[in-house]
Amino acid sequence: MIYPVVVYGHPVLRKVAEEIESDYEGLSQLIEDMWETMYKADGVGLAAPQIGIPIRLFVIDGNDMAEDFPELEGFKRVFINAEIVEFEGSKVNEAEGCLSLPGIREEVSRPSKIRIRYDDENFVEHDEVYEGFAARIIQHEYDHIEGKLFVDYLSPLRKRLIKRRLNAISEGKAETSYKIKLPR
Hints:
By secondary structure, the protein is of the alpha+beta class.
């Protein structure tokens, strides 16, 4: 099932998501639906809050970007109950976009290296270190389960400059190739 993507202004995007247990009803199907939704929208990652479900779950598939970012070769993961336990490395500026903020791309500064603990789709615990663009994608999706968006990292001036575009998104005035769900 392909879900509509929740867009800017919807309260679920600002909630800190809840942890889940291995017996979460319909989890396997939800994960499959998230993959399907993400691929339909040409995304690299998708967090459950982006489809209106406030749980600590996100999926990432960076394989399509491996030509530009070799560390993404074979990088396809399910992250459940994730917690970033360490940020390291110098901050790096890169343009980011988001399915919940269609048409907006902005430079965001993020640490180049992270350590994260999470459960996979089988509830096997992992404690891993990621660097480069893989670390950036994880931080972006992790922000969604923490109730944050990449625009939160912009300067006050930059936020003012894109305010009209953000308001338009929340009113449904955004061109997308995928279905969206408005805040109301």
